């Protein structure tokens, strides 16, 4: 009926409506393309460019009393991962924790606080900047898709250098998503994983962020994921950590903030139910999408220490 009425309109009116729809369609695509670019590109300090400012290492482990060694893990002739290795001060190491940051974070911004807590528990820690972040090469992110390969590269590096077992992978937000994808698709085999604030599906994560900024999510979220996929040669619509969780057989600890406006408790419960090995879930009642050790240090330490006793 609507189509019939459209053809009953005058030719001039039809042309105006067609041009209006075309302008709206092209404008939405242009804005979505730009939005995807800004969300997945970092701009370096001192260089103009679109994107989130690339994080820098303004704080180093020695600033909080930790001895460390800066290392680079080569990926190829032009790419590398920068890491900080912080050895335990205990006579015997309890194992090695590999820590991975969230989107736009870095080892300096997001990983020093949890690394210090693991250090006090007697663990060696390896803090890793994903490509595009901190001291690592590049200026782009794929929100956990390519980063899964970085997880595999870092774990292989630790195993090759005979770091102390057990190997525990700890991630924040995107870092957790990358860990789950690394287990599912890169076939990494850690002794345990600690997943803090993971998102369940990339599309839902984009939708929630649009809602938080009072932007209608449909169809903009779909268009952002589409153009981001085109820009980076990935399929963002299949980037779903909730499905990757089905491949996790090792012990897993899931940490989440009850007040998180970006990731719902239902999504976290779905991830938790899909984990196949022994698992524990801790909900932080007063936390949102923030680094949880800085919100409730006592609950974080209690949950992590109890979990690690069973690894």
Automatic annotation (TrEMBL):
InterPro entries: AB_hydrolase_fold, Hydrolase_4, PhoPQ-act_pathogen-rel_PqaA. This is Serine aminopeptidase S33 domain-containing protein. It comes from Pseudanabaena biceps PCC 7429. PANTHER family: ALPHA/BETA HYDROLASE DOMAIN-CONTAINING PROTEIN, PROTEIN ABHD13. It holds the Pfam family Hydrolase_4. Residues 95-203 form the Serine aminopeptidase S33 domain. Gene3D superfamilies: alpha/beta hydrolase.
């Amino acid at each position: 009926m609507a189509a019939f009425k459209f053809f009953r309109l005058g030719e001039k009116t039809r042309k105006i409506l067609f041009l209006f729809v075309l302008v709206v369609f092209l404008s939405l695509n242009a804005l979505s393309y730009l939005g995807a670019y800004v969300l997945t590109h970092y701009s370096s300090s001192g260089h103009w460019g679109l994107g989130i400012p690339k994080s820098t290492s303004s704080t180093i482990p020695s600033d909080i009393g930790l001895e460390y060694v800066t290392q680079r893990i080569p990926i190829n002739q032009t790419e590398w991962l920068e890491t900080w290795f912080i050895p335990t001060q205990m006579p015997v190491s309890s194992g090695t924790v590999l820590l991975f940051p969230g989107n736009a974070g870095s080892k300096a911004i997001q990983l020093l606080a949890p690394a210090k807590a693991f250090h006090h528990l007697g663990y060696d820690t390896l803090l890793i900047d994903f490509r595009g972040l901190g001291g690592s090469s590049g200026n782009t992110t794929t929100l956990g898709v390519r980063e899964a390969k970085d997880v595999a590269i870092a774990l292989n590096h630790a195993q090759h250098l005979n770091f102390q077992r057990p190997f525990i992978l700890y991630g924040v937000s995107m870092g957790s998503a990358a860990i789950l994808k690394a287990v599912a698709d890169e076939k990494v085999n850690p002794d345990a994983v600690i997943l803090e604030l993971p998102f369940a599906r990339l599309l839902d994560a984009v939708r929630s962020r649009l809602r938080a900024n009072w932007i209608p999510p449909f169809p903009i979220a779909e268009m952002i994921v589409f153009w981001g996929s085109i820009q980076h040669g990935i399929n963002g619509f299949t980037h779903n950590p909730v499905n990757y969780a089905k491949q996790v057989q090792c012990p897993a600890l899931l940490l989440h903030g009850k007040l998180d406006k970006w990731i719902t408790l239902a999504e976290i419960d779905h991830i938790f139910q899909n984990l196949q090995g022994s698992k524990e879930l801790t909900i932080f009642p007063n936390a949102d999408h923030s680094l949880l050790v800085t919100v409730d240090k006592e609950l974080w330490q209690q949950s992590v220490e109890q979990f690690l006793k069973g690894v």
